[in-house]
Amino acid sequence: MNRGLILKLENLVQLRGACRQLRTLSYRRVNRAQWRPVQSSVHPMWSVLPYPQFWQKDKLISIALSQHRHLATKEETKKKKRKIPLTKGEVEIRQKMTIEELAQAMGKDIDHIYEALLYTDTDIDSLEPDSVLYEDQIKLVVKKSGMKYKSAKLKEEKERENTDAVKRPPADPAVLTPRPPVVTILGHVDHGKTTLLDSLRKTQVASMEAGGITQHIGAFLVHLPSGEKITFLDTPGHAAFSAMRARGTHVTDIVILVVAAEDGVMQQTIESIQHAKNAGVPLILAINKCDKPEADPERVKKELLAHDVVCEEYGGDVQAVNISALKGENLMVLAEATVALAEMLELKGDPTGLVEGTVIECRKDKGKGPLTTAIIQRGTLRKGCVLVAGKTWAKVRFMFDENGKAIDEASPGIPVEIMGWKEVPSAGDEILEVESEQRAHEVVAWRTYVEQQEKMKKDMDIIEAKQKAHRMEYEKKQEKFAHLTWRQRKAVLYKANKHLMFSKPKERTEVDKNVLSVIVKGDVDGSVEAILHILDSYDADEECKLDIVHFGMGDISETDISLAEAFNGVIFGFSVKANENIKKMAAKKGIKIKLHNIIYKLIEDFKDEINSRLPPSVVENTVGEASVLNTFSVTVGKNKVPVAGCRVQKGMLDKKMQFKLIRNGNVIWKGSLSSLKHHKDDVQVIKTGMDCGLSLDKNIEFSIGDEIICYEEKEVERTTSWDPGF
């Protein structure tokens, strides 16, 4: 045998050895077992071939031929694995575990996990020991193994020290000094609250309000001719601003309830009374517009009796003063009544120590940044004080009074506008002074942490509820396939989901007209809050879905335009502006910007926008009516066609329009006519009193007494069923 032939044989031997190794690897993958090399005791058959000396010279080939792979047995594998003892047959599971981790937790081998997964719809061919299983799969494996599971406790975080800022203990009575009373003016819209305050302050606030309607909380310090000071909070009376009114009563000492003498008790009057009762604040009744000829103050007092507001002349404790805010009549009497009540309450404050207060209103100013209107309740606020409110803080840079004049300090009971906030706090937040900026950072960090923990807890509750619902749905599906083998189940699921496997995500070719995406911008926090409160009452999602993409304070910006473009939204602005560049950008991109200064007009515009997105409703207008007097049939080709002999009772029958057949009050058929004849002639129209024969586009037998109605369909614009409540 020549040398070339021997080399070819050597190559064939090497190829056979490589094939054997590949086959052994495939066996390993299928059986999930370990393999190891062992020395073979069997001589290769090639050792008996002629010319053995050539084989001995090539040691590499001899070693390859003297080895083979063999699979370790299941028993050998089990001996090597250390089983983890189970406590009470329970397995601690996590939301995500690898197959290997689950096997260790259960004290089983990996093959057991694969066997249990055969009873699920999981594709085990794609799984490896380090593949991740999710909670539903893990629980199913444990249950199929006849064991119980319990959720593993998360590693408890080292308990974080509470670094929140808190109010100081009650002050020593010896340091208390008299302070101005905080008086909130409440009442129904347009009953003259702001005009009353204008007359007391001798200003013209009402004329500056859009539509003459107050739409913010205004905090004002009024100096009376007698020398006393009173801090007034002028709250909106419109239905939309309920939250603002509630906030006003929680920081006040006295409530002046303004009721128009000609209108009497109205919806927001009742709500204002309830706010005062909830806050435990005494009332003074101001019956306004008594100068009008139709005024009836006594009727107002009697109407208030039904709401447990009893005036002094009826044996109660509520002072009632008849006034005319527009003409300035009896205003000093009202002011004296307020001062007298304040003296009875013995209102005092602590001007020393760290500042405490409440945020009344917030807004953003282009030049000054975030601003808050606040009432100081304790301590004296000065420049440089470090304050925290909610999850933000401020180092006071400037303070202003209600007229925008800079002031150096503010004592208890004084309203003040504060400049220097890092971010805008929320109206109603408690203001507390802290020792340093570092301490402010600690407080904000703690409050953010607490909020995150609460959110995580809520999220976990939602996740668990969804998982429970998903598990129940999954178990119902499994019950349907209980009689099938796992291969049959897999085939059924494949057929059911086959259409999804080959479908591509659809590109958004057209905008969904039944979704209204809105971006809300307001001048102050309270205005945005009021608008969102109204939109929260939206309950017509089946007509048009509402999606609030973004809300915030400040003028319309490029970011708002970009958001509106991305979501095909509409921007609603309340008491804000959009500069020319923004308007041009919006017009170029086809974005609607709707700006309003009166809240009910904004809501009306919002409803109009919803109405424009509703599909039109189809209305049937009856054109004519005919009654069936006789029935017969005619032969057309090989078919018999039912024909009705009719007389038009009302209107006319027009062959081009739609028809319906009514029998005993029920609609039997809708469609068009196949023929309409008068004296054997084909016609298009039959008028009142004329006889005709007609057949339908469908073979339906007529009965004497049936009614034939001719009608036309018209599209009519729909209006939303949502009612914002005003």
General description of the model:
β18 and β19 form a beta hairpin. Strands 28, 29, 30, 31, 32, 33, 34, 35 and 36 form a 9-stranded antiparallel beta sheet that branches. A 6-stranded mixed beta sheet has the order 9-10-8-11-12-13, sandwiched between helices. The longest helix has 44 residues, at 437-480. It is flat. The chain has 5 domains: 90-151, Arc Repressor Mutant, subunit A; 180-346, Rossmann fold (3-Layer(aba) Sandwich), CATH 3.40.50; 356-444, Elongation Factor Tu (Ef-tu), domain 3; 515-612, Translation initiation factor IF- 2, domain 3 (Rossmann fold, 3-Layer(aba) Sandwich); 617-716, Beta Barrel (Elongation Factor Tu (Ef-tu), domain 3). With 726 residues, it is of the alpha+beta class. Helix content is 33%, strand content 30%.
